[in-house]
Amino acid sequence: MCRRWSSTVQEGTQKLQLRAFEHDVSYIAVFHPELKEFVDVPAVDQEYAAGVNRYIHRLVTAETRRRYTDSWTREQRLSVKSEIQGIVDEAIKAKKTGTRKKSAVLNLSDS
Hints:
Elements: E1 4-11, E2 14-21, E3 27-32, E4 37-42, H1 46-49, H2 54-68, H3 74-93, H4 97-106
Antiparallel strand pairs: 1-2, 2-3, 3-4
Helix pairs in contact: 2-3, 3-4
C-alpha cells in the first residue's frame, strides 16, 4: 500500500509542496521547481526512521510524549520504538487470529 498525502507550505515568498508516505517515514518528497519533479529528502534520524511506517511513528510519538512530556531525548524515543516494535513482532508470531489481524494493521499489511 502506497498511500500518501500532499501539503503546501508557505516559507517566505516560496511555496513548498511536500509529500509524506504512509508506508515509510524515512523520507519525504519535496517538489523541486527547477527540475519540475519531486525529490526524496531523507529523515534526519535514519536510525529511528528505518522500517517505521506512519502508524507506528504516531504510536511511538504518543507514547514518548506520555512518558517524558515534551522533554524527551533521542535515546528515550529509540527505546520506546524498540518496545513497540517488540510488541508488534510478538503479535505477528501469535497463534490467535485476532492478535495476528491487529499486528497486520500495525504493519499496514494483510493478515
